[in-house]
Amino acid sequence: MVTQNFTKKVEKTDDAIKSTVSIRAGEIQPLPFWKALLYFGIPALGFRIAIYNGIPWLLKLGLSRFDAAIVSMTVPCVVLFGLAFGFYKHEGWPLTLVGIQSRFRLGRMTGMDWLWTVSGFITAFLMTGALGGTSMTLIRAFPAIRPPESFPAFVNPLVTSNLLALPGALAEATGAPLEGNWGVVLSLSILLFFNIIGEELWWRGIILPRQELVNGRWTWLVNGLLWLLFHMPFYPWRVIDLLPYTLIIAFVAQHRKNTWPAIIIHCQNAMVLVVVLAMVLGMV
Q1: pLDDT class for 176, splitting at 50, 70, 90?
Q2: Cα(first)–Cα(last) distance of the chain, in Å?
Q3: So what's the pLDDT on residue 173?
Q4: Domains of the chain: which residue ranges?
């Protein structure tokens, strides 16, 4: 009897949390376009300053090219991660697993979710790869957008136009042999975690549901284009090849009402980690 009563209380508590989350979900505020521009634009400025000014400053302090790049690129990603949870708390959501899953749309992956995710991953990968050469074309046509000498080698089209060029570029940036250098793997893992999770919790978890209340079924287009523009202050040469990538992620996230597909497709960024891991293990 005691066990039954306890079970009923737990079920009622769980129902109460779910009810609260349901109410909160109805209180998400619409995000007008002008405010969305600020929410995309201000972080873009932060990334620009961190990469273009932060890296040279850290190099002057004596950090290696690799360490300076990792620190400068990780910090703004951590800020986005913090912003996502800051806005989450500001909206009044409870710090519970149910609340986090509901507000950030981190729902269970169904078979249909996986179908859309895999299809989106492959399509984005192929289209982005097919358009990869446009970066160098744009740099040659507009020399003003050429990345500075201090720009991170692993995202610099002048240095690593493909993954095969990555080993040499990273070895030079770290200033030490990569074989057995697990610190490089750890540093990249931290960067990629905050880059992928921080961005997706912010762009698709917090921003996209609010945009839906204003832009309706075309939210994916607005969200995807603004996310593309977000990259332009620091990756202006990628205005063409990133377009299918940003639109596909936004479309799948909205269509499935789930942020996990966006996170998984965004994990294409982590492919560089696979190459680095192979280098550390002495396989490359």
Answers
A1: confident
A2: 64
A3: 73
A4: 33-280
Query: Do residues 224 and 249 make contact, with C-beta atoms less than 8 angstroms apart?
Result: yes
Picking from 28, 90, 42, 84, the residue whose alpha carbon sits closest to that of residue 226 is: 42
Distance CA 106, CA 88 (A): 14
Residue 109 and residue 20: Cα distance in Å, rounded?
23
**201, 202, 198, 223: which is closest to 212 by C-alpha?**
223
Three-state DSSP string of 59-103: HHCCCCHHHHHHHHHHHHHHHHHHHHHHHHHHCCCCCCHHHHHHH
Q: With bands split at pLDDT 50, 70 and 90, how would you rate the model's confidence at 163?
A: low
Give CA angle at 193 (28, 83), nearest 5°: 35
Q: Which two tokens stand for residue 86?
A: 């800051």
Task: Evaluate if pTM is beyond 0.90.
Answer: no
Tell me how far apart the alpha carbons of residues 93 and 10 are, in angstroms, rounded to a whole number.
20
The whole-angstrom separation of Cα 87 and Cα 209 is 13
Kindly report the backbone phi and psi dihedral angles of residue 159, in degrees, each rounded to the nearest multiple of 5, phi listed first. -110, -50
Instruction: Please check whether residue 73 is in contact with residue 172, taking contact to mean a CB–CB distance below 8 angstroms.
Output: no
* Nearest-5° Cα angle at 44, 58 to 209: 135
